[in-house]
Amino acid sequence: MLKKGADDFELSFFEGVVRERPNYVEALVPLAHVYTRLGFHEKSLEIDKRLAGLCKHDPVIHYNLACSYSLLGQLSQSLTALKKAVRLGFQDLRHIEKDQDLKNLCTYRPFLQWMETVKASQFTKMLGKIQERS
């Protein structure tokens, strides 16, 4: 019951802030997280799309957008957002593979092919750095 009350409070609080300040990123981010946690994935996606427009160069925002698309089974859009997140600097491949919000995406053949390419690229970069030090 305590968890439910905390979720209700957060939801009410952040929705109120966003009502007053629709583009306030510091309220939109936690609101999207609350929506996701409560299973309101369509609402979370709308917030994440808004955030991606407001924070065009933030890799974590685009990563979260990929998660929202994945949760709704919109795999092509999810992969597009994830690719952008990686281009912008998101590098934690292990997190990508283990994140339950990306579970749907992780069985999508284009994702699997892309992930192999990304891993190979990171391996090549790592070898280059090792050779530079030698």
Structure description:
This protein is mostly helical and 134 residues long. The chain has one domain (2-133): Serine Threonine Protein Phosphatase 5, Tetratricopeptide repeat (Alpha Horseshoe), CATH 1.25.40.10. Helices cover 78% and strands 0% of the residues. It is built from 7 helices and no strands. It has helices spanning 2-20, 25-38, 41-54, 59-71, 75-87, 93-98, 109-133. α3 (41-54) runs antiparallel to α4 (59-71). The protein is elongated, with a radius of gyration of 17 Å. The N and C termini lie far apart (59 Å). The mean pLDDT is 93.
Give the topology.
Elements: H1 2-20, H2 25-38, H3 41-54, H4 59-71, H5 75-87, H6 93-98, H7 109-133
Helix pairs in contact: 1-2, 2-3, 3-4, 4-5
- Give the N-terminus to C-terminus distance in angstroms: 59 Å
Number of helices: 7
User: What shape does the CA trace take?
Assistant: elongated
Order of helices and strands: HHHHHHH
Average pLDDT, all residues: 93
Indicate the CATH topology. Serine Threonine Protein Phosphatase 5, Tetratricopeptide repeat
Number of domains: 1
Number of beta-strand segments: 0
Strand content: under 5%
The CATH homologous superfamily name equals Tetratricopeptide repeat domain
